[in-house]
Every structure is written in C-alpha cells, then in structure tokens.
Design brief:
The chain is α/β, with parallel strands linked by helices and about 250 residues long. The protein contains twelve helices and nine strands. Strand 4 and strand 5 form a beta hairpin.
C-alpha cells in the first residue's frame, strides 16, 4: 500500500536527520491497553492523584496509593509493546537515535528490546519500587502478595524505610540525571519527534521547544492537537504505531 503524503514527509525528515531525539507520552502506550491518566475520561478525572507530601505524611494515603497500584497491576502485566514501541526501538537499533525520552512509567520501551540506559524516564517507572531511605529495589509481586494479606503499606525489609513505586509523584522532585540526559539528547538532535504526548506537562514538555529553538526540526505525532503544533514542522494526527511503523518500515 502506498504511503500517504504526511507519512512520506515524516520518512523524509527521519532520512535527512543525522541525530534524532524521540520523546514519548501516554499515547504510545494506550495502543497497548495502558489507560491514560490526564486525558478526558482518564484515571485522574475519576480520582485525584496522591501528592508526594500526603504519601509521606499519612499511612492511609500510602495504603490508598498502593491499593491503586495493585488494582492496575493485571493491566500492566498483560500489556505488550506495540508497533510504535518497536519502531522506536528500531530507530535506536539503527543508530538514528541514542535513546528515547519518555514520560511513561510502564517499562514497555525496555520490553521492546531497549536497554535500561537507552530509556530516559522523566517520570520514573511503576514496574518496581524503591525504598525512599536506602534506595533498595523492591519487586512488585512480593509487595502485592504481602499487601493482600494485611492491607499494610510496604516497608523496606533492609532498613524499615517507606517503600514507593519508582515513579515521580506530584510534589516530588524531577530526577536530575534523567533531566540532564534528556536535555543533552535534545540539544544534540537535528530532528525531535514527539509521539503521543499532549505536551501540557512541564518541565517535560519544554524539551520540544528547546529542540526547535536550537535549530532542530520538530515532528509531532498525536491523536489530538497539542499546544506546540504551530511550532512544529510536521504534525500528524493519528495512531502512533501505524504512523511511525509505516515511516520506519516495520510491521
């Protein structure tokens, strides 16, 4: 099937760029069945997110945060990388991009074959947990089994500290190393591709602006319009997997 004009234009931008920065948001993972948080009808329109300060101050808040996390566990475990994730991984494999910058916390980029160091997670990762005191890693399944027995928010077995999913909550500082790496990738790019982000959450949404102001071309692939569409060289409103998969020529 011949490609339409917009996909051909994206293909041309990819072909001409010596270095690409890829930035992904919830839209790439909704195609794998992961529910969105911010969009109309998303999780946060039905229940307000729990602020980091409340999580630290209240056992009840911690218990509710973990109840919510375990409630979506079956969805997260069943989700598989889709054509969009595979297309991103292919661009990295070909050396067109060094890494993917992502707002997502689902680990699907790693599941698509990317190494941990090739995924820059701005909002952390929900597929495991960390102790907030000693930084020890905790796997989700043992925490879930213990929670189902006693409904008590988990504590670190090594130091007794508070355990939280390895995500960045409202009120929590952004990860300095991830932000530094994302800025470096952005500044090095000749082409910055946004995939499935509404581009309303800062400081993460500032990276496309930084790329454009630094002279890079900007392509946005998203089902809905974004506030940065007027800044972009190319805007494609459609499914991520179908669009990028066709542009990168993978099934």
């Amino acid at each position: 099937m011949p490609l339409d004009r917009d996909i051909l234009a994206l293909q041309q931008l990819i072909r001409e760029a010596r270095r690409i920065a890829i930035f992904t948001g919830a839209g790439i993972s909704t195609e794998s069945g992961i529910p969105d948080f911010r969009s109309p009808g998303g999780i946060w329109t039905r229940q307000a997110p729990i602020d980091f300060g409340a999580f630290m101050a209240s056992e009840a808040a911690r218990r509710e945060a973990w109840r919510r996390r375990f409630a979506i566990d079956p969805t997260l475990r069943q989700a598989k990388p889709n054509r969009g994730h595979r297309a991103v991984a292919e661009l990295v494999r070909r050396g067109r991009a060094a890494a993917v910058i992502t707002q997502n916390i689902d680990g699907l980029h790693q599941a698509s074959g990317l190494a941990e160091e090739q995924v820059i997670e701005l909002h952390g990762n929900s597929t495991y947990a960390r102790c907030l005191d000693c930084a020890g890693r905790h796997e989700i399944e043992p925490l879930r089994l213990a929670f189902e027995r006693n409904e008590v928010a988990p504590r670190c077995g090594a130091c007794g500290g508070i355990v939280k999913t390895a995500t960045v909550s409202f009120g929590q500082s952004m990860p300095e190393e991830a932000m530094r790496r994302a800025e470096a990738e952005t500044r090095a790019a000749e082409l910055f591709i946004v995939l499935g982000s509404s581009l309303v959450v800062y400081p993460a949404a500032g990276f496309p602006e930084l790329a454009k102001h630094g002279g890079a071309r900007l392509a946005i692939v998203n089902r809905e319009p974004t506030p940065l569409d007027a800044l972009a060289d190319l805007v494609l409103n459609g499914a991520i997997g179908q669009t990028l998969g066709a542009a990168v020529s993978i099934d």
